[in-house]
Amino acid sequence: MFDYLSEAERIAPELAALRRAFHMDPELGNREYHTAARIEAALNGWGISTRRLLDTAVIGVLKGALPGPSVALRADMDALPLTETTGAEFASRNPGVMHACGHDVHMTAALGAARLLAERRDVLPGSVAFLFQPDEEGRGGAQRMIDAGALEGVDAVFGAHVSPDLPAGHVGVRYGKFYAASNPFRVVVRGVSAHGAEREKGVDALGAAAALVCRLIDLPKSLPDGPGVLTVGTFNAGTAENVLADRAEFGGIIRTLGPEARSEMKRLFRRTADEVASQWGATAEVALTESYPGVVNDDAMTALAERAARKLLGDDRVHRIERPTMTTEDFGLFLQERPGSFYHIGAGCPLPLHNTSFLPDARAAVTAAAVHAAVIEVFLTGEAGA
Q1: 368 φ/ψ sector (left φ>0, alpha ψ -120 to 50, else beta)
Q2: What percent of the chain stands above pLDDT 70?
């Protein structure tokens, strides 16, 4: 295998400059205009053609000199509405906005892979589409990119996320179910108001809603094929201390692993809401929103990524992730359309994602760029079984 790690280390100063520029100028979802322009300038400078989708999404296409398949590499672009407290000299200059989830590293790594592969286009078969996606942290840009044709002609898709659980320079792979599906929900319970001294003359919407919350948070224990998490984050009811509430509303989010668990949780949720409301003489209106489907990796593509990473980094720096995460990621939408794999890159920072002091080590982008390039070349050249 070509030594992409040494080559990535060679361009490390250039990657560091890109990462710092992204980090200093973070932009929220669907507003990544400066970010998109910076990505286009870098790709065009390396002879990689680009086009825009969705105003701020950028697709760069690198064509190899030899015939072959097509593969995509995705990186998310948006930042979070947080005030940075890292104290870094390249900290965010945009008040109330920061890259607290490592997307600055993701973009830098994808650009690094593009640079490395562009230098080898004369021996590269097929083509590579670099997908820079907006709004992963918001309502999701993946599905809109897919709908706009981002995966047309693409045979497989790969991506990665920095992980505080791994040291810098290390990689983690996970077979099968990796990230959870999510379903935000809102429930309105309706009863009949009455004097607080005469409860029997009304229907207590607040009491019914409280009983329902207690039942719902136990539901993940009933799932047959893996863990689930149900969180109630808001609860509002009542107007006075001596009045039986005729309306209560609460909201939250469900996280499950895999389509079967997701379907079962939704069924149990609706059934429980009907049962509890009926027991109290109330009614319950349930709104379950379909959000990200979770990430379920293709086994063959994950094996390819693992072999490529082990050849590049050595066995001691590549880990199999034993437990899935209950966080979510809209990369799973790409995996519903094409085979592929999503892996972790060591952040070298122990603080959790979305922390205002989260700051991955500069080496994370170097490692990720090299691994991306190696995975892509192995896929394009058909060396997966070597």
Answers
A1: alpha
A2: 99
Is residue 14 located within the same domain as residue 135? yes
Residue 218 — φ and ψ, nearest 5°?
A: -90, -10
Cβ contact 74:343 at 8 Å: no
The pLDDT tens digits for 15-47 are: 999 999 999 999 999 999 999 999 999 999 999
Count CB atoms within 10 A of the CB of residue 285.
Answer: 12
Beta bridge partners of 161: 344
Domain boundary among 249, 272, 288: 288
Mean pLDDT of the chain: 96
> Is the domain of 16 the same as that of 128?
yes
In a domain, 58, yes or no: yes
Residue 386 domain flag: no
Asked if 59 and 166 sit in the same domain, the reply is: yes
* Same domain, residue pair 237 and 349: no
- Cα gap 101→163, rounded to integer Å: 9
Residues 6+ apart with CB under 8 A from 318: 170, 171, 172, 173, 306, 309, 310
Whether the Cβ atoms of residue 72 and residue 158 lie closer than 8 Å to each other: yes
Q: What is the CATH number of the domain that holds 94?
A: 3.40.630.10
Domain-terminating residue out of 255, 288, 321? 288
Distance between CA atoms of 62 and 115, rounded to whole angstroms?
10
Q: Give 383's pLDDT tier (boundaries 50, 70, 90).
A: confident
Question: What pLDDT digit, counting tens, does each position of 339-357 carry?
Answer: 999 999 999 999 999 999 9
Q: Rounded distance, CA 270 to CA 268, Å?
A: 6
Separation between Cα atoms, residue 166 and residue 170, nearest integer Å: 6
Q: How far apart are CA 363 and CA 104, in angstroms?
A: 13
Q: How far is CA 151 from CA 127, 305, 313, in A?
A: 12, 20, 29
Q: 163 and 32 share a domain?
A: yes
- Count structural domains, the chain: 2
Domain of residue 212, residue span = 181-288
Residue 266, C-beta contacts closer than 8 angstroms, at least 6 positions apart: 183, 254, 288
